[in-house]
Amino acid sequence: MQEPEEKKIALELLETEQAYVNRLHLLDQVFYTELMKEARNGKTVPEEVVKMIFSNISSIYQFHAKFFLPELQKRMEDWSCNPRIGDVIQKLAPFLKMYGEYVKNFDKAVELITVWSEKSLSFQELIADIQKRKVCANLTLQHHMLEPVQRIPRYELLLKDYVRKLPPESPDRDDAERALEMIFMVAKHSNAAIAEMERLQNLWAVYQRLGLEDDIVDPSNELIKEGPIQKVSTRNNSTSEKYLFLFNNMLLYCVPKVIQVGAEFQVHLRIDVDGMKVQELNDMQFPHTFLVSGKQRTLELQAR
């Protein structure tokens, strides 16, 4: 008798989970533990840096090693009398939200490894020493750290495949479909966490360029577009270089600073988007011009 397709996928899930737990063990019990020990002896880097690099890897490792892997193993041993994994994965899914923190921190962690490898020779040497061990399989710390980032998409793929191969009358169909839905939501949660982090980082960078003016710094703002623009002066028929930042709620009309100490721009005017009108002009002398009129005032601008 050939094994049913869905059992093959369930076995693949178990095998990859076993390999994954080994990888988590390496990250938490070897890299993190040894680097932390050295940090406590004051030999390599501050303890805080080590904690920031590894984020919440210990919680992720404990969860997979002590709960999810043993549950899967037990289930696969009983497959002949209870051929199902959907319910086990449903129990797993809510805990996968823990990954949001790890995934959000990943880029920062990799950057910290690079920075501190240059700053501290003993830190660099300890990592190199662990990487030489057989358990590392000639791969770098950064490579191993990528594994948790890729794990949730892997669950999603395996489970999709599992649901597809299940016979219609399978006792696991309802649970497996529900589990897939839950995993999908967690993956979305993780991606949303990354997107939100990137948005806030970009927003913060813009605020710094604007000199952190108090009434402008607001985490809920969204930058829609920015770019250079010419201000048309009808009085003396000339244009001057300005810069615009368009947010969801305001348009900032700025002047580039000649001496860039701290801020790059000075905000000259803020026009509320609420009630703002934009009108194109047909000016032969200044092509691509338009009027922006808001509660605060009206500007004649020329685009490239």
Automatic annotation (TrEMBL):
Residues 222-304 form the PH domain. The keyword Zinc-finger applies. The keyword Heme does not apply. Its main location: cytoplasm. It comes from the Eukaryota. Keywords: Cytoplasm, Cytoskeleton, Metal-binding, Phosphoprotein, Repeat, Zinc, Zinc-finger. Pfam families: RhoGEF, SOS1_NGEF_PH. GO terms for molecular function: guanyl-nucleotide exchange factor activity; zinc ion binding. It is found in: Cytoplasm, Cytoskeleton. GO terms for biological process: cytoskeleton organization; filopodium assembly. One of its GO terms (cellular component) is cytoskeleton. Residues 5-193 form the DH domain. InterPro entries: DBL_dom_sf, DH_dom, FYVE_RhoGEF_PH, PH-like_dom_sf, PH_domain, SOS1_NGEF_PH. This is FGD2 protein. The lineage of its organism: Eukaryota, Metazoa, Chordata, Craniata, Vertebrata. The gene is Fgd2_0.
